[in-house]
């Protein structure tokens, strides 16, 4: 269980802090707006009304003891940067920051933070990929154009085997597992036959995955 500080409890910050709580962590939430803090207070370990650019306020809240901080004051460049500088001076190693503009990103990368997040762009790309490949439920990029994807088996390819599905790309795609209701099948053989509503998890190159896409939907 970790201890996290979430600074800025707008839509992004509040969603992140609630999910951290759900995952079993302790979360100190900070926002300058009392109304916002009151709305979420009973769902966090501690929620405080404070100006995150005020060093004493952050120290009083014991932010120094946190393992990681998420700074989610996207709209205010000044508050975001000042807060990040304070957190760095308090020696918090893991600082993740939501950025909303190019200059914001540039400054953050110069100061050096663990991760810069662009929710609108990242989500926009995810949505485009889902629109383009609706059968892909989830995917993860693992670098070098390699992906792990979870595919929902529809009527179109029920009854076909893994060997048929992957025929010309079997060297570029590895079937990792199939989930059928509550059962997980590992070490999938080429003869494994897919059924409707199976979740198939594959790892492979983007090009190979694109090749089999028309077969799936
Ligand atoms: P959203 O996640 O809703 O898209 P956003 O990235 O657009 O948020 P803002 O709405 O500007 O960013 O700020 C998020 C939250 O941060 C707001 O609830 C705001 O009250 C809070 N905030 C802004 N400045 C400060 C500050 N100096 N100290 C603490 N909280 C602040
Ligand atoms: P972002 O993705 O940047 O967070 P947002 O969800 O906060 O955007 P807005 O910035 O209000 O939403 O609007 C997004 C875009 O939609 C803007 O570029 C705006 O010009 C455009 N837009 C707003 N109203 C209309 C409209 N009636 N017709 C067409 N485009 C519109
Ligand atoms: Ca916003």
UniProtKB/TrEMBL annotation:
InterPro entries named in the record: NAD(P)-bd_dom_sf, RCK_C, RCK_C_sf, RCK_N, Trk_Ktr_HKT_K-transport
Name of one Pfam family that matches: TrkA_N
RCK C-terminal domain: residues covered: 136-217
GO BP: any one term: potassium ion transport
Origin: domain of life: Bacteria
GO molecular function, one term: monoatomic cation transmembrane transporter activity
Domain RCK N-terminal: residue ranges: 1-117
Name this polypeptide is given: Trk system potassium uptake protein TrkA
Organism of origin: Nitrosomonas ureae
Taxonomic classification: Bacteria, Pseudomonadati, Pseudomonadota, Betaproteobacteria, Nitrosomonadales
């Amino acid at each position: 269980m970790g201890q996290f500080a979430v600074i800025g409890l707008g839509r992004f910050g509040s969603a992140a802090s609630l999910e951290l709580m759900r995952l079993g962590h302790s979360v100190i939430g900070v926002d300058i707006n009392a109304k916002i803090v009151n709305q979420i207070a009973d769902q966090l370990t501690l929620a405080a009304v404070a100006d995150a650019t005020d060093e004493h306020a952050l120290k009083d809240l014991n932010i120094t003891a946190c393992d990681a901080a998420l700074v989610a004051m996207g709209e205010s460049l000044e508050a975001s940067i000042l807060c990040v500088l304070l957190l760095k001076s308090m020696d918090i190693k893991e600082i993740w920051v939501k950025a909303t503009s190019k200059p914001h990103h540039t400054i953050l990368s110069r100061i050096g933070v663990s991760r810069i997040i662009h929710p609108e762009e990242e989500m926009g790309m995810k949505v485009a990929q889902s629109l383009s490949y609706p059968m892909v439920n989830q995917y993860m990029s693992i670098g070098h154009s390699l992906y792990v994807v979870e595919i929902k088996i529809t009527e179109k390819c029920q009854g076909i085997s893994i060997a048929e599905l992957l025929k010309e790309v079997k060297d570029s795609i590895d079937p990792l597992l199939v989930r059928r209701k509550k059962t997980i099948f590992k070490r999938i053989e080429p003869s494994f036959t897919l059924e409707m509503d199976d979740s198939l998890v594959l790892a492979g190159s983007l090009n190979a995955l694109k090749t089999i896409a028309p077969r799936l939907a």
